[in-house]
């Protein structure tokens, strides 16, 4: 009897130790296709490219989590983005440019420290039917809201009946100008970089078919952006909307403007096919600096992890170049692992 109890105690100790060990996971995705974009977008000046078409879809993530007991856990994420056509990292050779953090979680939510996607940008991509990928994307882009911040502290609350709150602050130095830019030439000017600590928050409610949220961001140049987002899934289709208002400029600081960006879009499933369509418009209080875009496309799901896609995008507006106004097309395949 004593031997049996001793054996059970030893097995229990081993089981407890095993449950506390870290679990490390490798995940990511690969995307490749052919696309037609504006002239002079590549080194050769060609309209056509072969490579990844979806934003961030060529990447891998190393992540891990450890149970600390008492409802606490420790976790980390190391996310690397690269170009599939030549394997080069997407940002000046930086290995884990996309996201890298370590954090602690529990009943209070979780706290993360590192290089992190800020709260407004963390929210708004989920309300673009193209998930910020492909040439059809009608993403509002965040005006000049910080995309990813270096030296950041990020808090995420637990869900309270579908209500969550995210808040973040980052160091006032070492931020990247490219992390304040979007797809219509808005960004913080060089002269104002590293002026303020980037801060941001979002509040979101998601329950059943409804999701709504608000967000705020102040970037390192003291430019502010606010956003309102919503979606409703009717079953036969899902309707999505984005509205953002904020300060904008160019790299030289010579085009100070107040800008609004708004989009209306939808997705509709038809068996293995998911159709996507959207319209986005950018309005400026400065003359001759407006733009709009229409996107349409669809995915054909070969499995839960692999899909084919084809999209088109057409932009217009007097703030765009002739090349940017050309119709864009893409056709490709994405595999997630």
Explain the overall architecture.
The protein has 337 residues and is mainly beta. It has one domain: Porin (Beta Barrel). The chain contains two helices and 17 strands. The chain has a 16-stranded antiparallel beta barrel with strand order 1-3-4-5-6-7-8-9-10-11-12-13-14-15-16-17. A hairpin with a 4-residue loop joins strand 11 (224-233) and strand 12 (238-248).
Q: Can you tag this structure with a few keywords?
A:
2 helices, mainly beta, 337 residues
List the helices and strands and how they pair.
Elements: H1 2-19, E1 23-36, E2 48-51, E3 59-69, E4 72-81, E5 99-106, E6 109-117, H2 119-124, E7 148-156, E8 163-170, E9 199-207, E10 210-218, E11 224-233, E12 238-248, E13 257-270, E14 273-284, E15 291-301, E16 306-316, E17 328-336
Antiparallel strand pairs: 1-2, 1-3, 1-17, 3-4, 4-5, 5-6, 6-7, 7-8, 8-9, 9-10, 10-11, 11-12, 12-13, 13-14, 14-15, 15-16, 16-17
Quick recap:
By secondary structure, the protein is mostly beta strands. The protein has helices at residues 2-19, 119-124, and strands at residues 23-36, 48-51, 59-69, 72-81, 99-106, 109-117, 148-156, 163-170, 199-207, 210-218, 224-233, 238-248, 257-270, 273-284, 291-301, 306-316, 328-336.
What is the strand content?
A: over 45%
Report the top-level CATH class. Mainly Beta
Provide the spatial order of strands within the biggest beta sheet: 1-3-4-5-6-7-8-9-10-11-12-13-14-15-16-17
Name of the CATH superfamily: Porin
The total of beta strands comes to 17
Q: pLDDT average, as an integer?
A: 90
| Major β-sheet profile | 16 strands, antiparallel, barrel
Class from helix and strand fractions: mainly beta
Distance between the termini: 49 Å
Low-confidence stretches: 1-19
* CATH architectural name: Beta Barrel
SSE run: HEEEEEEHEEEEEEEEEEE
> What Rg do the Cα atoms give?
22 Å
CATH topology: Porin
Number of domain units: 1
Into which percent range does the helicity of residues fall?
under 10%
Can you count the helices? Answer: 2
Overall shape: it is globular
């Amino acid at each position: 009897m004593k031997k049996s109890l001793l054996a059970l105690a030893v097995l229990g100790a081993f089981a407890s130790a095993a449950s506390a060990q870290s679990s490390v996971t490798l995940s990511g995705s690969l995307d490749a296709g052919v696309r037609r974009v504006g002239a002079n977008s590549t080194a050769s000046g060609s309209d056509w490219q072969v490579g990844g078409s979806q934003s961030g879809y060529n990447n891998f993530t190393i992540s891990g989590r450890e149970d600390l007991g008492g409802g606490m856990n420790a976790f980390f994420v190391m996310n690397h983005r690269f170009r599939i056509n030549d394997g080069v990292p997407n940002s000046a050779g930086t290995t884990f440019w996309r996201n890298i953090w370590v954090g602690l979680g529990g009943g209070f939510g979780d706290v993360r420290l590192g290089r992190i996607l800020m709260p407004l940008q963390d929210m708004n991509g989920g309300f673009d039917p193209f998930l910020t990928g492909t040439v059809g994307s009608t993403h509002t882009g965040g005006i000049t809201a910080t995309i990813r911040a270096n030296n950041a502290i990020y808090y995420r609350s637990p869900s309270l009946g579908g209500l969550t709150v995210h808040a973040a602050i980052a160091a006032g130095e070492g931020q990247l100008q490219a992390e304040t830019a979007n797809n219509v030439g808005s960004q913080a000017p060089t002269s104002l970089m590293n002026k303020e600590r980037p801060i941001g928050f979002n509040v979101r409610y998601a329950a059943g078919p409804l999701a709504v949220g608000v967000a705020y961001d102040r970037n390192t140049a003291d430019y502010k952006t606010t956003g309102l987002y919503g979606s409703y899934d009717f079953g036969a289709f899902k309707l999505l909307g984005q509205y953002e208002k904020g300060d904008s400029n160019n790299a030289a600081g010579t085009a100070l403007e107040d800008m609004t960006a708004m989009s209306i879009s939808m997705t509709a499933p038809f068996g293995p096919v998911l159709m996507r369509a959207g319209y986005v418009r950018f309005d400026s209080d400065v003359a001759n600096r407006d733009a709009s875009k229409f996107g349409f496309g669809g995915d054909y799901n070969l499995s839960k992890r692999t899909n084919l896609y084809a999209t088109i995008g057409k932009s217009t507006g007097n703030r765009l170049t002739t090349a940017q106004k050309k119709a864009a097309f893409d056709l490709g395949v994405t595999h997630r692992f």
